[in-house]
Write a structure and sequence with these properties.
Pfam families: ARM_PUB, U-box. By secondary structure, the protein is mainly alpha-helical. The protein contains 23 helices and three strands. A hairpin with a 5-residue loop joins strand 1 and strand 2. Helix 10 packs parallel to helix 13, helix 16 crosses helix 17 and helix 17 packs across helix 20.
């Protein structure tokens, strides 16, 4: 055999001719052959699958577009193709078989090993080719099904099992890496909305999973909000009471997953139809507590590092508040919160936060103070006048100064009345 032939991946060879597939087609047994080879076999009167020798209950053949696409991509690489990629393709096919197998080679231990190998591919020198193979071989829907589908009630209540949780962590890690390749494959996430049991498993994992699992599930929610094809799933996430409640709990725990919870809530806020549910399940209270933690972050090195990360998300957190305050229920929730107005005032002008925070705080105060006299009194009592004057003298954006000026006019008459 010549060198080019030696580098042909096993997956790309017809089991009959042993040559590179020209027109791959699949039988009802799941085995793939080159069209010309299998047609000759069937034309000779054979009614069995050449590889498995199973009797064909359905003699029809179906084009294997996935394999055709992979072969085309492989051929396009031409001289740039690295011989190691042949092994990559065959290895991925073997890993997929292990993950789907119900036999001895599909034990949990072997599946954990397979997932670890899959994760390793993403740091490979040839990861671009590997990732394309993952998508073309259908790893994303398969992993989603393994994590969220086919679970009995008894199995679902065993999610705290260490080995199973390790499997979930590794599998979701793979899922996230595949989702990061682009929006074209996000539609696969709809598997979660199409089956109530899958959604229930998603919520259960969020409730009982590790911080790593919760962070990854928050990223799944973010991904669902980024594509029109998954907008319905984003709506379902935002209106699943238990899930939203669990996200808010993570938000206020000051753990490594808290920052991802902020991003998840922000993603859910992208749909107007989710906002009432977010208010009802305590998102405003959770965000206010999160903002308070930002403004008072100090202490040991770990806390300081976490605090620095939080500062980067402070504008996003205030953006969530602004969106939720567009609802009357949101405004009522904030003004009735013991520290709601005070928390916003602290963010109007703070050395620990940037100009975007100030603009968000000023806009949020405008929304509540226009409607509620009690909110104006609280804001003045918390020192908002001084904060706004300092903000006006700073190098903040013109739009922020304009909003600050309007707030000062709003407070003027009440401030004079309170000063008498």
């Amino acid at each position: 055999m010549s060198e080019p032939e030696m580098t042909i991946p096993h997956l790309f060879r017809c089991p009959i001719s042993l040559d590179l597939f020209e027109d791959p087609v699949t039988l009802c047994t799941g085995q793939t052959y080159d069209r010309s080879s299998i047609e000759k076999w069937l034309g000779s009167g054979n009614l069995t699958c050449p590889v498995t020798m199973q009797k064909l209950h359905d003699p029809s053949i179906v084009p294997n577009h996935t394999l055709r696409h992979l072969i085309h991509q492989w051929l396009q690489l031409g001289p740039q193709f690295h011989p190691g990629n042949s092994a990559t393709i065959d290895s991925l096919a073997a890993l997929k078989h292990t993950l789907l197998s119900q036999e001895d080679d599909g034990s949990l231990e072997n599946k954990l090993e397979a997932l670890e190998k899959i994760n390793a591919f993403f740091s490979d020198e040839y990861c671009s080719f590997s990732r394309s193979c993952f998508l073309q071989l259908g790893f994303l829907p398969m992993l989603l099904e393994l994590v969220f589908g086919g679970r009995t009630t008894e199995e679902s209540h065993a999610v705290s099992n260490n080995d199973h949780m390790k499997f979930v962590e590794l599998a979701i890690s793979c899922i996230m890496k595949l989702l990061h390749l682009g929006n074209d494959d996000l539609e696969a996430l709809n598997i979660i909305k199409d089956d109530e049991s899958k959604l229930a498993t998603f919520v259960l994992l969020f409730e009982n999973g590790t911080n790593s699992v919760k962070s990854s599930l928050c990223h799944v929610i973010e991904s669902a909000s980024s594509s029109e094809t998954t907008q319905e799933l984003c709506y379902i996430f935002g209106n699943t009471q238990k899930l939203v409640h669990e996200i808010v709990l993570v938000l206020v725990q000051n753990c490594d997953a808290s920052e991802d919870a902020v991003k998840a809530i922000s993603a859910l806020c992208s749909l107007n139809s989710n906002r009432e549910s977010l208010v009802r399940e305590g998102a405003i209270e959770g965000i206010l507590r999160y903002i308070s933690m930002i403004s008072s972050s100090s202490g040991n090195e770990t806390t300081q590092i976490r605090g620095q990360n939080k500062k980067l998300l402070a504008p996003m957190a205030l953006g969530i508040v602004v969106k939720l305050l567009e609802l009357e229920s949101g405004r009522e929730t904030l003004v009735n919160h013991p520290n709601g107005v005070d928390t916003l005032v602290k963010m109007v002008f703070s050395v620990k936060c940037d100009q975007d925070c100030s603009e968000g705080a000023v806009e949020a105060l405008s929304l509540v103070c226009c409607d509620y006299m009690h909110a104006r009194e609280q804001a003045i009592g918390a020192g908002v006048i001084t904060k706004l004057l300092l903000l006006m003298q700073s190098h903040c954006a013109t739009t922020t100064k304009s909003k600050a000026r309007m707030l000062l006019k709003l407070f003027k008459s009440k401030w004079i009345q309170m000063s008498k």
